[in-house]
Write a structure and sequence with these properties.
The chain has 279 residues and is an alpha/beta fold. The chain has 11 helices and 6 strands.
Amino acid sequence: MAESSSSLSSSKDDLIQLIKRLGTYLALKMSNLFSISLQKLDPQSVGAIAGLAVAIIFTYRLMRLPAAPPRRQPKLQFSTTSSSAISTQSNATAMASGVCSSSEDSRAQNVVDEFFQPVKPTLGQIVRQKLSEGRKVTCRLLGVILEESCPEELQKQATVKSSVLEVLLEITKFCDLYLMERVIDDESEKNVILALENAGIFTSGGLVKDKVLFCSTENGRTSFVRQLEPDWHIDTNPEIVSQLARFIKYQLHVSPVRSERTAANVFGSPSLEHFFGCV
């Protein structure tokens, strides 16, 4: 303790001597600079100069002070850990943001794909397109609408094809449809009308019983078609189709056997429903 006190007293003495010398030096310099002798300096001037010297010394000593000691290692570790945690959290946030962005981009792309995906047309649209917007259609019953294929079978029964019913109803929605067939007797007519009625064609569609026509010969059906002048005629008899090719705008020849096209306005198909893509 004694050694510390003597050391502190010696430092103070040195400081006082330094201040005195500095004050004298500054006073001499100032006197020379302004042509003022040291003897003419009043006490206030000397005090001001001494104060300036003290300020300079303390400023110098403060500049010479050693730098602050480094932080303790645990704090550095905590800071490092915190920084690591923040960095990890930032990375996780960035990754989550990237995932969200990628998911949003994927959903947006799906929406765009769905928007530009070709829309599947309805059966009604297909029927109108296939018929070229034709407004009047005549059609044979045997082999097209009915399961039976000859007039003799109609004497016993008549059965509407279930596969053709949907297409037939669509045709009746926007076309003036006439059904016709050659029959042997009145009983055959009754069987045909009853079958069409049970299938709901007269109630669900726009067909009326007066538009179901019967004749006793194949030529009679040809006469019906020419008198009605339809946009389309549908038949299974190749001879009638060939005869009507000059008079009817379009025809559909229904045959299970593929045959050569007899005219540019005559189309072929194994069935009515197949022609409209329902098979």
